């Protein structure tokens, strides 16, 4: 999520400099939808792109395209001949992200998979295992995404999960944003599973939204 007023993020983003034209197009589209606030911030996107680049990815999956902003950071971190499969169910978001991601779609490096991610993910398994998987879709489905991700990540591959604090709702602070009991219980249940899994090494990155980074042993 973008944090317009957090001074540390402002400082970091000044150091990084402006995002490129195509990224700004994704942000413009998200703003047009009134959803600029749910695109990943430059600070977090840069961190995720950097972490994923360390494992030299060729095949990345993203759940939740919106307008293609975070997808572009994963595209930047790809090795030659790599590709990103990004899943999105909203036709409006698919239309706008298709424009923002056009250069990579034309080169065969980005594929937008239309539909409910829970139905599309099993179809993707045949292309796996994957080097990196980013979970940023429907919060009430996080446990299902997680179960799919841990079965389809390669050894040494990385799973990133955004919004795991649910704006504080996971520790009982519901003053900032309302989430359903189902969303809260699902995210908490998934988080317990992440840290109990002996096949993974995982850590929170305590961004304001809460990011989990897990690496398959
Ligand atoms: C937080 S936004 C993703 C932001 C994006 N990753 C970024 O930072 O640029 C979540 C997206 O997931 C999509 N979404 C929600 N439920 C979904 C589902 N069941 N299947 C696929 N996409 C879904 C929403 O339409 C929305 O575009």
Report on the structure:
The protein is an alpha/beta fold and 217 residues long. The protein has one domain: Vaccinia Virus protein VP39 (Rossmann fold, 3-Layer(aba) Sandwich), CATH 3.40.50.150. It contains 9 helices and 7 strands, in the order H-H-H-E-H-E-H-H-E-H-E-H-E-H-E-E. The chain has a 7-stranded mixed β-sheet with strand order 3-2-1-4-5-7-6, with helices on both faces. Helix 8 links the parallel strand 4 and strand 5. Helix 3 runs parallel beside helix 4. The longest helix is centred in the C-terminal third of the chain and has 16 residues. It is globular. Bound molecules: S-adenosylmethionine. S-adenosylmethionine (SAM) binds next to helix 4 and strand 2.
